[in-house]
Amino acid sequence: MFHGAAPYYARYRPGYPPQFFAELRKRLGLNGTQQVLDLGCGTGQIAIPLAPAAATVFAVDPDLDMLDEGKRNVAGTSNIEWLRGDSNNLRSLNLPLLDAVLMGKSFHWTDRTALVSDLDTLIQPYGAIVVVTGELHAAAAVAPWDDLVASLRVKYLGPRRRAGSGTYRRAEETHFDVLASSPFSNVETLGWQWNVERDVDAIVGLQFSYSYSNPAQFGSEERCVAFAAELRAALLDRYPTGVATEPLTIEALIATRPS
Ligand SMILES: C[S@@+](CC[C@H](N)C(=O)[O-])C[C@H]1O[C@@H](n2cnc3c(N)ncnc32)[C@H](O)[C@@H]1O
Fold first, then answer.
1. pLDDT tens across 5-51, in order?
2. Domain residue ranges of the chain, discontinuous segments joined by +
3. What is the pTM assigned to this prediction?
4. From ligand 1's centre to the CA of 167, what distance in Å?
């Protein structure tokens, strides 16, 4: 799904703001003694900043390149266990009973209902599931260069949103509704908005971090280079200083069992 994306992911994905982690520590009561799972951890956007607040963070992802990039981002010893796995084989990972399970932009890749039912047996009675998306109130912030990227993406990759060797179709049932009709039916929604400054190279690199426009999707190195050159030129035309501001949003759904 993310073939070739891992180095771009580690370098260009913005991660999450400090206020998000501060709120999580408070809401989940993290004090360094908890067992936490970051499922679909990518290169560690949640696992790494959260690790100081937990006893162990199990950072699980099916993509070995993502895990390798994540490990590279951690200096020295750490309490993060990087494990290859996915939502379908959690039981085989021999995890301890968990205090919290976090999923940053990964819940949509899973069989959500089956996963939440599995998590019911893996999470402490008082524990929580946290689902994080790049949206806020059902709408994602749109980058001001989105039109430039979209037209080049159509030119190089076609009009349909790709995902691995197929295409992506968003599920009709919202994450909120899936959680609200699960054993973790007590769902609270929190949101954050912030801005990041990006230079043109970062905007180009970001495109190769997505499942729908990672390097493998282009089919050859030459086509990646051509896409990058065209996008770079279009961006410099619009932003002669070479820098632009991107608005970002995230929403976190914190789901617990009714007390
Ligand atoms: C968009 S990335 C999110 C990475 C990181 N959690 C973040 O917040 O930026 C989605 C990740 O989910 C992983 N993934 C895909 N299918 C999965 C599954 N069934 N179970 C767990 N992780 C999965 C992908 O390999 C990828 O690393």
1. 898 999 998 799 999 999 999 999 999 999 999 999 999 999 999 99
2. 6-142+170-196+247-256
3. 0.94
4. 17
Alpha carbon nearest to ligand 1 atom 16, residue: 109
Residue with CA at minimum distance from ligand 1 atom 12: 40
Query: Hey, whose CA ends up nearest to atom 4 of ligand 1?
Result: 42
Q: How many whole angstroms from 110 Cα to the centroid of ligand 1?
A: 9
Bridge-partner residues for 247, per DSSP? 195
Q: What phi, psi does 214 have (nearest 5°)? A: -75, 165
Q: If you measure from the C-alpha of residue 62 to the centroid of ligand 1, how many angstroms do you get, rounded to a whole number?
A: 8
Q: Whole-angstrom Cα distance, residue 49 to residue 105?
A: 16
Q: Which of 84, 106, 131 to mutate to test the pocket of ligand 1 (most atoms within 8 A of CB)?
A: 106
pLDDT in tens, 201-234: 999 999 999 988 999 999 999 999 999 999 999 9
User: What confidence tens digit (pLDDT) does each residue in 147-205 have?
Assistant: 999 999 999 999 888 777 677 777 889 999 999 999 999 999 999 999 999 999 999 99
User: Which CATH number, 3.10.129.10, 3.40.50.920, 3.40.47.10, 3.40.50.150, labels domain 6-142+170-196+247-256?
Assistant: 3.40.50.150
